[in-house]
Amino acid sequence: MSGYPARWNSLKDVLVGLREIFASDNVDVDEVKRLLNSYKSNPKDWKQFCSWDSAKYTRNLIDAGNGKYNVIILCWSEGQGSPIHSHANAHCFVKVLDGQVMETMYQWPDSEDDEQPMRVFKKGSLFTNEVTYINDTIGLHRMENPSHTEGLVTLHVYIPGYQECTTFDERSGHRNVCKVVFHSNSGESLDYGNSRPGCSEQALPAPNEGTLELPEAHNCSSDVCPSTSAAADRSGSSSSDEDSSSHELDYSHSEMESFEITFSNFSRRDGNKIGRISLAHNRLRVVPRKISIFTNLNFLDLSGNMIDSLSPEILKLTQLRTLIAKNNRLTAEGIPKELYQLTELQHVNLSGNPLGHVPEVLSVMKNLVFLQLGSCELEEIPEILTNTPSKLEVLYLGGNRLSSVPEEIGYLDNLQALHLNGNELEALPPSIANLSQLKSLSLHQNRLSALPSEIIRLDNLRELSLRENPLVRHFVRFLIFQPPTLQEIAGRVIKGKKILYQGQLPTNLIQYLNSAHHCVNARCKGVYFDTRFEHIKFVDFCGKYKVPFLEYLCSPRCIPSSPVPLTETPDQEEADMMKKVLLG
Predict the structure, then answer these.
(1) I need a labelling partner for 417 at 20 to 30 A (CA). Which of 32, 110, 206, 318 fits?
(2) What is the residue range of 288's domain?
C-alpha cells in the first residue's frame, strides 16, 4: 500500500485505509494488523456508533466494506461475554478501543460425538489500543469483559464478513450454528424483534460501494462537549433528560483537585442551562460545593476520584436522574440518608466502592430503575432491598462475596436484568421464577451445581449465563437428606391423612402446617416441611444439552430406581431458551 502513514489520525482514516487494502485481491494480514495498531483510539471517533444493552453485548456495523470484509464495533457492559465460537473460515482482527477484554482460546473438539469439556490452550487480557488476531486454523475463542465497574468497546474486522458461525458448549463440546445479528448499522438502531440473540435471521446489510460516509461527530469546545465516557452513554437517560437543559460540561481527565473556582465563573442563569456534567477521573476528594448552582442538572459523573462521602450539596440537585459515582472510596456510611429526597433519581452506579453493605437509603428510593453495586465488598443482599415495591429494572451485584440470595428477590417484579456473576453462590431460591419480566440472568463464575427447576417458568428470559460453574454433569443418587423431626413426622401425617386442623391448634402450628410443600414426584402424594431430599434431574434438550435442575422430594424412596437421568422433551420455545443456557 503506497504512502502508508506512521499513524492513522481517526477511525475514518482507518476505514479509508481498509478500502485501499481491500481494493486488491491479495490481502496481507500483517498489513491489516499494522493499520489497526497505528490508530490511537479516540472516543470522539466512535462513540456515535455505540449502543448498549444491559442484557447482552451489542454488535454495531459501521462498514459493510466492498463485499470482502466488514467492520463492527462491539459494546460490552460489565461482566458480559460471548459464547465460545468459530469464525466461519474468516480472518478476525480485534482492536480494543476502550477497556479490557479477556480472551480465552480453545482447541477444536476431537469430534462432534464426544461429550468432553472444551480444552483451553491460551488465556490473556488485552487493553486499550492492543490488537489480536484469530482464524479457525488457530482455534476457537471466547471474549468477555472481566470488569464489574467499566464497559468495554472493541473494533472487529472480519475477512470476509460472515452471516453465521458455530458456537460451542463449554461443558460438552456440543455445537450449534447461529446466524449473526446486528444491533445498529452506521449508528442507526436496527429492530430485530423477537429473534433469538446471536441467532437472528436478519440479513447482512449490502456493501457500500460508493463514497464512505460516517455520521458527523458532535462539535465541541473544551468546556461544553458531549461526554467521552462510556458511562454517560450507558446511563439509561432518555432524550427527554435534555428538554430543560441541553448543554454539557465535560471536565473528565483534567487532573483537577477542585472545581470551586471554575464553577464560580458561572452565573445562576448560565448554570440553569447545564444538564450534564462529567468530573470523572480527576483528583477530587469531595463533591464540589458549588455544584448546587446547576439547578437543572440531570446527569452527574463523579467516577474515578477519591471521594469518600457524598456531601449535602448533592441533595440540592433536585432534577438529578443519573448519578455515577463508581470507583471512588465511598463506604455505606458515606451515602447520605437523605438521598431519597432526590425523587427524580432513576440510575445510581456505586460500583467499585468499598461499601461493605448496601446503604439502607437505597431500599426506600422507589423510582430507581438502574442500580449498580458491582465490586462493593458486599456479603449479603439485605431483605429490605428486595421486599419493598420497586420500579427497579436492572440490578448489578457482580464481583462481590455473596453466598446466598434471599427469597424476597422474587418481589422485584419489574426486574429485567439481574447480574449475580462473580460471587460465591451455591444455590438460587425458587422464588427467582417470580421475576416474570426477567430477560437476562448472569450467574457465571459462581459455585452453582444445579438450577432450581422453577427457572423454566421465566418465559421472557433471553440470556442465561452459566459459564465457569461446577454444574453437575452426571446422575447423582442423592445429595442431602436429614431425618425429619417428630414435629415434621406429625405434620406429614396430618397433611397426608387430610385431618382438619384449622381452629383446632395454636396459631404457630397452623402456620407450620400451612407451609407444607408437595413432593414433585407425580406418583407421590406426600409433603415435606423443613426436611427434604435434594435430587438432581437432568432435562435433555434436543438431544444436546443435559441441564441439571435441582428439585425436592419428600423421601429418598421417591427417587427413580434406575440411575438413568430423567428426560423431558420441551416445546420449541423452551428448547430455544435452553440452547442459550450453556452457550452464554
Answers:
(1) 318
(2) 220-349
